[in-house]
Specification:
With about 200 residues, this protein is an alpha/beta fold. About 45% of the residues lie in helices and about 15% in strands. Helix 1 crosses helix 2.
Amino acid sequence: MDFSSKILENAVNEVSRLPGIGKRTALRLVLHLLKQPAENTKYLSEALLHLRNDVKTCEKCHNISDTVLCDICQNPKRNPEIVCVVEDIRDVMAIESTAQFKGLYHVLGGKISPIEGIGPQNLQIDSLINKVKQGEIKELIFALSSTMEGDTTNFYIYKQLQKFDITTSTIARGIAVGDELEYADEVTLGRSIINRIPFEQSIKS
């Protein structure tokens, strides 16, 4: 791809670093920005800098937040005895959109994947175990994607919790094997949360 402007080329190269965006899409986005009023680009730049510099991670659930504790953890109407274990922020957003879950979350920050060099020590698993040790949690719902990595992560956590008096369940398999939660429709995902099954049963099936 030949550029008549080095500045344009640099902008396209930077935008194309974003996941899922190739050079052609990046060029289209950059040219779109050039056609917009200068203040629009300024607002976008300021929003991205604000995101990068000021966004926080909730100290309790590891969700993305504007404050030390996220709005979900601060909400007195949520049930702290039920915690839904998810991979990342996108899964929290997907489940919240169903309006079917009234407990709290724990964001692991990924899944165990030896191929990618991700082990239990790279995830927020120890902090989850510490929460369980405190005794407030009565049920953990495993809501990781139904992939080999997701199932491995679920089983690892389950084994760490066997000595504690806690119920472990997993979302019902209304979500197809291999699917990511963020791509499930709200009705299916909502029903999967409501119709969750004991984790032991999911191992046997």
